[in-house]
Amino acid sequence: MTVRESIDPGATAPAQPGDRQLEVSWVQTGWDHRWASGLRDQMDAELRPRYQAFVEQGRRRPLPPRAEDIETVWIAVADGKPAATAALLRNPGYWEVKRVFVSPDFRRRALAQQSLAKVEQSARGLGVNELVLQTGILQPEAIALYSREGWDRTPGFGPYAGDDGSVCFRKVL
User: Fold this and answer.
1) Which of 8, 73, 86, 165 could share a disulfide with 100, CB 3.0–4.6 Å?
2) Using CA atoms, how far apart are residues 14 and 108, in angstroms rounded to an integer?
3) Is the pLDDT of residue 25 over 90?
4) Nearest partner of 130 among 119, 140, 141, 139, judged by Cα
5) DSSP state of 69
6) pTM for this structure?
7) Which residues 6+ apart lie within 8 Å of 79 measured at CB?
């Protein structure tokens, strides 16, 4: 799939004290794009140590989404590098936000919030009126983000039903 520029290139990410402001452009792409894949690999590498005990206990992870079920992937590009991502997954009966992640070099600049907003905007454009997402119990920063951004905790859904390692959220659009 080719990368398509979004409607708002030239957005900025707030600078932290002592940092310069970043010029950010947003691109929409597919699940298999190298930038999307690279950011997911970074996310996996960061989270693997947190969840090693789960792996050792034999807990199984849900299968990754099929590329054809991903409606869109948003990527923030800062300084010419992929900086953040979030995806929208079409499931039978529900729409799910997947793989919200900000590369460590670009954190604390509101890119996670902006990524969520991009996915929510895409969902609204498709006529979707509710989204769900899942995160793990060992990701307090993600739990705090979703709570701050107006997501409500909900019981596990789909492959996360009954999974005590998951924290699930929903948001009415």
Assistant:
1) 86
2) 8
3) yes
4) 119
5) G
6) 0.88
7) 22, 23
